Amino acid sequence: MNEEHINNLIKKYKAGESSLQEEKLLFDTLDESNPELKSVAAFVQKNSITAPDHLNDKLWNSFEKRNSKSKRLKIGIFSAAASIVLLVTLYINMNHQNKLSNSEKQALLNEAKNMFADVNSAENQHRIIVESDLVVVYSKTK
Q1: Using CA atoms, how far apart are residues 9 and 95, in angstroms rounded to an integer?
Q2: Which residue ranges traverse the bilayer (predicted)?
Q3: CA 72 from centroid of its chain's CA atoms
Q4: Do 96 and 90 form a contact (C-beta atoms < 8 A)?
Q5: What are the pLDDT digits (tens) for 29-68?
Q6: Which of 4, 40, 127, 132 is deepest in the core (most CB within 10 A)?
Q7: Whole-number Å distance between alpha carbons of 131 and 138
Q8: 86/138 Cα distance (integer angstroms)
Q9: C-alpha neighbours within 13 Å on the C-beta side of residue 134
Q10: Nearest to 41, CA basis, from 55, 26, 22
Q11: pTM of the model
């Protein structure tokens, strides 16, 4: 690798604009001419830690578990709220259907009075003379 390319990588590194691949290439190819970066490179290489195998898979699985728990909780809460709203709506609707208007109540009262008036007038017009298990004899009165 030529000196100009290494100098460009050093400038990018000091400006904080280098990528991880460029930093790795820079630290691997440094010579003794730049002791400041050589010590940084030695520190980075000594303290570099590799990520465990399947780390991304484990992280995604843990995120999905958290998301699925919160989704299940939200679905449960919305289901309960919808059930409560449905029950309240049905209760209110049933109460309004059972209430009669004043005119309907008056009509039912008049109908009931007429039914009893017919029975009373029929009793006044007929008088039972003889009553047995087989025969009932009436007499008509005015």
Answers
A1: 81
A2: 75-94
A3: 8
A4: no
A5: 776 667 777 777 777 777 777 777 888 888 888 888 888 8
A6: 40
A7: 9
A8: 61
A9: 0
A10: 26
A11: 0.32
Q: How far is CA 9 from the centre of its chain?
A: 53
Give which of 36, 35, 40 is closest to 24, Cα–Cα.
40
Query: Do 23 and 13 contact (CB within 8 A), yes or no?
Result: yes
User: CA distances (Å), 121 to each of 99, 118, 124, 142, in order?
Assistant: 33, 5, 5, 10
Contacts of 41 (CB under 8 A, 6+ apart): 26, 27, 28, 30
H or E element, residue 127? strand 126-131
Q: Where are the domains of the chain?
A: 3-47
Query: How many residues are listed for the chain in this entry?
Result: 142
